[in-house]
Amino acid sequence: MKVAVIGTGYVGLTTAVSLAMNGHQVIGIDLVEAKIVKLRQGISPIYEPGLEEALKQVLTNGALAFSTKLQDAGDADVFFVCVGTPEAEDGTADLRYVYSAVAAIKEIHQASPKSRVIVIKSTVPVGTGDKVAELLSGCQELSVASNPEFLREGNALFDALTPSRIVIGASEPKTREVMEELYKGVSAPRVVTTRANAELIKYASNAFLATRISFMNELSRLSAALGTDMVTIAHGMGLDSRIGPEFLRAGVGYGGSCFPKDTIALLQLAAQNGISLSILEQVRKVNATQPVWFLEQLQKFVPDCRGKRIAVLGLAFKPDTDDIREAPSLSILKALEEKGAAVFAYDPIAADTVRQKFPNVSYTNTADEAMQGAHAALLITEWKECVQLDWAKIYQSMAQPVLLDGRNAWPAELVKQAGFQYCGVGRS
Ligand code: UDX
Predict the structure, then answer these.
(1) Residues marked as catalytic
(2) Binding site for substrate, residues?
(3) Measured from the CB, is residue 121 less than 6 Å from ligand 1?
(4) How confident is the model at residue 73 (pLDDT cuts 50, 70, 90)?
(5) What is the value of pTM for the model shown?
(6) In a mutational test of the pocket of ligand 1, which residue from 122, 317, 322 has the highest number of ligand atoms less than 8 Å from its CB?
(7) Residue 265 C-alpha to ligand 1 middle, in angstroms?
(8) Does the keyword Oxidoreductase apply (predicted)?
(9) End-to-end CA distance of the chain
């Protein structure tokens, strides 16, 4: 099929590459000329394992092209809308890019009508797909499907090629057929439903995953007070098939482009409908206070941080990404600076972006270097470069051998045997 993908950000680029790999003829569209120039050279604007290699491959075999002009995609059968839906000031999703993409597609369609489907992949409030369909009601043969994505950063291409499920929100049988044809080669359970159901599945999934994390994070505070071990507790819980092992890892809180934004958007959507999602409100509160609680643990070992060297390991919101949006590291750096600490931070990829926000932090080239002479080291993102360390060497190099493990990813028993004072999240 001939496919246009509008927006070459995280979702759009991954979608374009995966569709091209699956045998479709794809054109990626973006207004930002500099981005298109790079993409045409096979350079990915985001760090995502495997994406750049795959991009080069589909560019070389001609399955994927890029343009700044939507007119170049005039003969496409399917238009994916993958533009950003940033958080507006009131927490609702700002849909201006979605609507302008739809208006541009409408123009193209009116100039040369044929059977076409607009697929909304951007995360949009429930009802948006129906509103778009209403806007296009005069356009014969142009239909709308909602097709949310569930990509995880760091695993985006893998998730696009082997999704857990494909959710198709479309009412007309013909539109559903086009969507089935589009994903013909992909083996995954299908949920074929209304547009509104598809839209809510996306928000509800992210809100539920965020809820699991905040539940475990809040419980970790009790675990710390009781002297129990959160890792063992999560393991014991996860073996119950009704619970499952995923997303039970206590830590310094969730970040990223989805959970923070989608949970607030869902709360706003509920409020607009006169519904209070009180559990979700607490989920957000727990997430906001988890870094604060974590830093209180540091105080037990370093009561006054003023002038003390503190190592912060990992800055991205999770490993294998350069994304720092809503990363817990940001509130932790801010609090440490306010306490007057001399902060030495390390991240294999994201340091340069953080540097722009925190110019007074010293950024090192390795985790070891950040920990040298430190009075405490804080693990914020569990990059392998921050986890697989020579503990005997580090023990010698620190001013005070204190390890605050914000991801429960350091080998607790081993480091304690090596002489460190160790404190994890709900484990000691
Ligand atoms: C998430 C969803 O997983 C994905 O389906 C959706 O499309 C977009 O949002 P992503 O934000 O890339 O993906 O990352 P994810 O792996 O879900 O992690 C989100 C945050 O939760 C990270 O900050 C991570 O560190 C944290 N997390 C995750 C925990 O604190 N504990 C866990 O057990 C799992």
Answers:
(1) 258
(2) 150-153, 202, 247-251, 255, 318
(3) no
(4) very high
(5) 0.95
(6) 317
(7) 17
(8) yes
(9) 56
User: Is 2-193 assigned to CATH 1.10.10.10?
Assistant: no
CATH classification number, 207-423, choose in 3.40.50.2020, 3.30.565.10, 3.40.50.720, 3.40.190.120: 3.40.50.720
Q: State the distance from the centre of ligand 1 to the C-alpha of 231, rounded, in angstroms.
A: 18
When the pLDDT of each residue in the chain is averaged and rounded to a whole number, the result is 96
294 lines ligand 1 (CB under 6 A): no
The domain locations on the chain are: 2-193, 207-423
pLDDT at position 124: 93
> How many angstroms separate the CA atoms of 301 and 223, rounded?
19
From the CB of 251, is ligand 1 less than 6 Å away? yes
Counting atoms of ligand 1 from 1, which one is nearest the CA of 381? 25
Cα 316 to Cα 381: distance, rounded to the nearest angstrom: 7
Nearest to 59 by CA among 44, 74, 79: 44
pLDDT single digits (tens) 6-57: 999 999 999 999 999 999 999 999 999 999 999 999 999 998 999 999 999 9
Instruction: Decide if 2-193 and 207-423 have a common fold.
Output: yes
For the segment 204-215, what is each residue's pLDDT rounded down to a tens digit?
999 999 999 999
Cβ of 248 closer than 6 Å to ligand 1, yes or no, is yes
